[in-house]
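FAQ: What does a ligand-bound record look like?

Like this one, built around adenosine-5'-diphosphate:
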Amino acid sequence: MSVLVIKCGGSIIDELSESFFTSVKKLQSEGYQVVFVHGGGPDINSMLEKCEIEPVFEKGLRKTTDEVLEIVELMLAGKSNRILVHKLEQHGIKAVGLNGSDAGMLTGSFIDQAALGAVGEIEQVNPELLEMLFEKGFCPVVTPISTTTSGQKLNVNADMAAGAVAKALNAEMCLFVTDVKGVLKDGQVIEELTEDETNALIEDGSIYGGMIPKVNTALSVLNKGIKEVMIVSGKEAFYEHNQFIGTKFSQKERV
Ligand SMILES: Nc1ncnc2c1ncn2[C@@H]1O[C@H](COP(=O)(O)OP(=O)(O)O)[C@@H](O)[C@H]1O
Ligand SMILES: CC(=O)N[C@@H](CCC(=O)OP(=O)(O)O)C(=O)O
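The answer part, i.e. the structure of the complex:
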């Protein structure tokens, strides 16, 4: 079974194009089992603002008090997940929305409870439910909400959650779908990036903000042996004429 993990950023859920869904369906028809892991950063921010709570980030991770956690889960599971599932269904893809914490799917631990509150990283993925859905031809759509082994809810960055799912399922491909065509430098898409080249772009400030956890997760997934790891746009087709369009991460160091 070839698994394709698609991380769909909150920045793009509302803007996914027709040709994006055509690309997903093309890959399904080629035999890939597709699982979506999604974010919802912009929706969480706007609800926090409505509640007069200022969003605070440290190194791309949202400081998550108990009050913030409630809003994070509400928006991820109640809004972003619903929108993505509905759009997939409208395009003929049989989608099932799940919270990452359902059926003990994603379990993890606090990263730094004193500094970040309920922010976690995933330590274990239970693939049972996902595999059951694949067998029946369903496409799981999963939030990055996870729990500790003692059952406390954790807010996990969606790029990192997608990376953990890709590793656990031994996925063939992991695609990070976002609102830009790939990693850009001077306005141009970089078609291929090695680890050293990526680190140099972080160092010189060409890669910043939400792109940092994305490229770091992409590299960690690549280093676990997942063959095709890319950042692609959800605004257009990302797979045409058997070719992917975006930034591909490569283990080959160029000389
Ligand atoms: N070198 C870069 N190339 C492209 N986008 C970049 C780069 N560095 C930072 N970014 C920013 O990263 C954003 C995508 O990350 P983010 O907003 O977290 O998206 P998502 O919600 O898809 O995870 C882009 O819209 C852009 O503003
Ligand atoms: C810990 C942490 O930062 N969690 C993220 C989870 C959502 C997310 O990652 O959404 P995007 O993919 O749209 O950025 C957050 O609270 O925003």
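Follow-up question: can I read anything off the structure? Yes, for example: The mean pLDDT is 96.
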